Amino acid sequence: MQIRPAAPADVAAIQAVVAAAFGQPDEARLVDRLRADGDTLVELVADKDRAIVGHILFSRLGIGALAGAALAPVAVAPAHQRGGIGGALIRAGLDRCRQRGVPAVVVLGHPAYYPRFGFDAALAAPLAAPFAGPALMAIELTPGALAGGGALAYAPAFGI
Ligand SMILES: CC(C)(COP(=O)(O)OP(=O)(O)OC[C@H]1O[C@@H](n2cnc3c(N)ncnc32)[C@H](O)[C@@H]1OP(=O)(O)O)[C@@H](O)C(=O)NCCC(=O)NCCS
Question: Residue 150 and which of 2, 64, 91, 123 are 20 to 30 A apart at CA?
Fold first, then answer.
């Protein structure tokens, strides 16, 4: 299994994996729209024997004056879940964001899953967001990046 950047030829396979993982087409449409709008920062696939079995996308996210990233969505094909692929995608994606100088990443996700990658609800709590609570988590890729707080500005594709 290889984690690699998404390529134009992967688009249909990504749509299929994302729709299968979520059991509905909404998140696959979100991925297409983010790409069409040019709001994708990092997009990776998990490639197993030339089949796409997982996908992750990080999009532009204003965090006050910071050019941060939103992690959404991450998806693993149902038959391949619970084998570490989701974790590998998240870790590789965070590494890419760090390499690109992204200071912080925000995710809205399951509070039992994301802390193992360093996401922390306490770091996100001071941010002015359209949603609040333990599902909103953040990770600083530049230490102290979130100390100043700030309002979250999601890409238009999210419709927030
Ligand atoms: C969430 C998802 C990407 C995780 O990928 P994965 O390859 O199955 O994850 P990993 O194998 O790296 O990690 C598995 C662990 O994650 C945890 N986990 C996975 N999905 C979880 C969920 N929805 N809620 C809470 N914990 C979850 C479990 O604790 C599991 O550990 P276990 O095997 O000891 O029970 C995948 O399950 C998926 O595509 N789900 C449907 C789409 C989705 O909900 N995406 C996240 C929201 S953007």
Answer: 91
**CA of 84 relative to ligand 1 center, distance in Å:** 9
Indicate the class that CATH gives domain 2-155. Answer: alpha beta
At 18, give phi and psi (nearest 5°).
-65, -45
**Residues sharing a CB contact under 8 Å with residue 159, sequence separation 6 or more, in sequence order:** none
Domain edges within the chain: 2-155
Which string of DSSP letters, residue by residue, matches 91-119?
HHHHHHHHHTT--EEEEE--TTTGGGGT-
Residue nearest to ligand 1 atom 20, measured at CA? 113
Q: Ligand 1 mean position to 56 CA, how many Å?
A: 13
pLDDT in tens, 66-110: 999 999 999 999 999 999 999 999 999 999 999 999 999 999 999
CA 82 – ligand 1 centroid, Å: 6
